[in-house]
Design goal:
Elements (H helix, E strand, L loop, with lengths): L2 E7 L24 H13 L5 E4 L9 H11 L6 E3 L21 H4 L13 E6 L2 E5 L3 E3 L5 E3 L3 H13 L4 E5 L25 H10 L4 E4 L6 E5 L2 E5 L9 E9 L5 E9 L9 H11 L2 H9 L7 H8 L5 H7 L11 H8 L17 E4 L1
Parallel strand pairs: 1-2, 2-3, 5-8, 8-9, 9-11
Antiparallel strand pairs: 1-12, 4-5, 6-7, 10-11, 12-13, 13-14
Helix pairs in contact: 7-8
């Protein structure tokens, strides 16, 4: 059976009405542009014949009820269906407080966007004939109220049942936290593991068994496509962080069952009051990169002393911005050979170290 559909992804919107913006000097998120950037992206998407839009979490700055309410109302005006899942910023507390909604309140805001059953924070729905979307909740809380990224047992049991019942459907999975590593040793490094699903291997095993081929994530604020066997994880950068991207995707299956996914990425280059947004936000990220890079250099496997790390940190001012934009290659010829090899691994290369540029524009054979 032939099948073709077009959809878009906008991730980590961090919507913040002006009166709600937190003025924290070290924040990476340019939430000031969240609403105009979203409006510009939606204007572009409105020119296309979209079948649906995916928003893989961090819809709001930090779970503020007025920001959730604004987004809910804005999505209601769109001419195509929208599906969301919660990010860690959307449900930052278990019980509601004066600044944020409670964990269980999230699906009540988004009943029209996947959550037909507001009693649970995950869902399965047919988005088109022959196409099923599974939206998962990767946010949990421990006994002390600390937020964690993993799938609890009831959700995993539910997912196993749903996957077993699927017959002859294209399955798309959406979850906020990363399931496949997008950075070298991401699941082990303290700077990267907090963006990973803590029990990612369990979810991967279920998806591999069910022959799921596509999963869509956010959280890391980078443009990257990673693979595990025949499963592709497409993570999309944040609309409020450099390079302010969003994606347009075209799925096609021919009469013989051959499938491919064509991916285009676009950027918000400027908005009112921020006409040079790309350049400004790249510098914004560079200005705040030093503490992050010092931690990277002094931790295993680099394990430099703080004094030695200072020698290299200025050369890495734009390192994270280049990671975020995807399809970057890294060469630092003045670094020691071992350090050169380490940073080369962060580039858009395959297992043999050969360039592989698929993070922004690609056609994936599924």
């Amino acid at each position: 059976m032939s099948l073709s559909f077009r959809f878009a992804i906008i991730s980590d919107l961090h919507i913040a009405l002006p009166q709600t913006i937190w003025d924290h000097p070290s924040r990476f998120h340019l939430v000031e542009v969240s609403i105009p950037a979203l409006e510009q992206a939606l204007t572009h998407l409105g020119e296309l014949d979209l079948d649906f839009l995916l928003l893989p979490g961090d819809l709001t700055q930090h779970g503020e009820p007025e920001n959730h309410a604004w987004l809910q109302q804005r999505l209601a005006k769109l001419p195509y269906p929208v599906y969301v899942v919660p990010g860690n910023h959307d449900v930052p507390v278990l019980e509601a407080c004066d600044r944020a909604i409670g964990f269980a309140e999230f699906p009540h805001y988004y009943r029209k966007y996947g959550y037909r059953d507001p009693s649970q924070l995950y869902y399965s729905c047919e988005v088109l004939p022959g196409v099923r979307l599974i939206g998962l909740n990767s946010n949990q809380f421990d006994d002390r109220g600390k937020q964690l990224g993993y799938l609890d047992r009831p959700q995993l049991a539910w997912l196993e049942t749903v996957l077993a019942q699927i017959k002859d459907e294209i399955v798309l999975v959406m979850v906020h936290h990363n399931v496949i590593e997008h950075l070298p040793d991401q699941a082990k490094h303290p700077l990267g593991q907090r963006y990973m699903l803590a029990n990612a291997p369990v979810l991967l095993d279920l998806l591999h068994q069910a022959r799921v081929k596509l999963i869509f994530t956010g959280h890391l604020h980078v443009q990257d496509i990673a693979t595990s066997q025949n499963l592709y994880e497409i993570t999309t950068g944040s609309l409020v962080s450099y390079p302010h991207p969003y994606r347009i995707l075209q799925f096609h299956q021919d009469d013989r069952g051959h499938q491919e996914l064509h991916i285009e990425s676009h950027r918000i280059e400027g908005v009112p009051q921020w006409p040079q947004l790309g350049q400004t936000s790249r510098e914004w990220m560079g200005d705040r990169s030093k503490p992050f890079m010092l931690r990277l250099l002094t931790h295993s496997p680099a394990q430099l002393t703080p004094e030695a790390a200072e020698e290299y940190v200025e050369s890495l001012r734009y390192f994270w911005a280049d990671i975020a934009q995807g399809d970057s290659l890294f060469e630092f010829p003045h670094f020691p050979p071992s350090l050169q090899a380490y940073f080369r691994r962060f580039g858009a290369v395959d297992d043999r170290g050969k360039p592989r540029f698929i993070d922004n524009h690609a056609t994936l054979i599924l």
